[in-house]
Write a structure and sequence with these properties.
- The chain has helices spanning 2-10, 16-36, 38-49, 53-69, 71-81, 83-100, 107-123, 127-137, 142-171, 173-194, 224-233, 237-252, 257-267, 272-297, 302-326, 328-340, 346-357, 359-391, 395-413.
- It is mainly alpha-helical.
- It has one domain (14-202, 222-413): Growth Hormone, Chain: A.
- Helix 9 (142-171) runs antiparallel to helix 10.
Amino acid sequence: MSHSANTTKASPRLHYGWIVVLATFVTLLVSAGIRSMPSVLILPFEREFGWSRSAISSVISLGIFLYGAVGPFSAAILAKFGIRRVLVLSLLVLAASLALTPHMTRLWQFELLWGVVSGFATGMMANVLGVTVANRWFAERRGLVVGLLTASAATGQLLFLPLFARMTTGSGWHSAVYAAVGAIAVALVVVAVWMRNHPHDIGAAAYGAQEAAPPEPFRGSVFATPLLTLRSALTNRTFWLLAGTFFFCGFSTNGLIGTHLISFCGDHGITEVVAAGLLALMGMFDLIGTTMSGWLTDRFDARKLLFWYYGLRGLSLLFLPYAVDAGSTALLVFSVFYGLDWIATVPPTVKLAAQEFGKEKAGMVFGWVVVAHQIGASTAAYLAGMLRDTTGSYSSAFWIAGLICLLAAVMAIRIAKRQLPLQPAG
């Protein structure tokens, strides 16, 4: 701790909060890369183990659901036990689950390792972590920080998916899994060395604040407090609208595109490496789009931003079944356009939750909103696989997703407008 304090004094122009953001970015980047990996494994597992597309999708669906369900409780656990301690333990558990994967021979083992263990471990390193860091370390530029940390999911996809696809195609999926374990080890070192729990730990104020105030001690149970927060939020109309739009957000992003785009492309004669490259391209443009969304969220009406994000996403999904047959240019245009909007919805959703429920409850409330997101993603991951098995095509899944995104745009604009500014970080 003294080393961190000395570092801060030696370079006063760099607030230590940005170092925490960097460590968090790396953690979320690796976690997102691991969570996106099953989309590369669908076809190899289908060939090697003889498992059906819907059976593999059901495991991915469970992992996606648990990844979200952990969110509200992770906000409480982070507050009670500290960010660094929780992340170190989560990374160790995730590494163990991946290291055991090459030894599995049955579907239930895949379900345990990737559905349950990986779902819980990555859930501790989900969007709630970014919101917690932003609220603790920043009194100003929270929207930008949330945008940057949300974009780490896209960056993880950008870095890891093409690598995993090439390794899987060239030397088998085992090597890709072991490479993922190596990436977790790097993240573990970064967190252990540079992560700090709160500005007060190094005698600093939050970025943009004048006083170095101690953190509010966590009161209550890590299990009961999130449930009580949910009970209170359920009486609020804004919560239902945020949760509803985020359900549709999850359905149309990691549940559908993130899980099934590679398989969808394979149905149309596009190789896994090329399809993974398209997802990586989406990730690159989402890094731009989500970071810009954070900047816009600090300056404009978050409801109107969500209206445009969901509306444009819906139109792009309705276009996708035609784009794949229209040639490489049309598919490239879809990837760029959709990528800019991939998870740009997060910063305005976080802002609306904080304005409605206050800074102290924002993390747990947003955690429950993310639960809705992951239920939507889980539904799409399974439904799209089932529709592919029964109809021989993914087209109906994309049409459904496009239409519900248009509905989400209407819901977003109906959220009550709040004039109250965000409370400064304490």
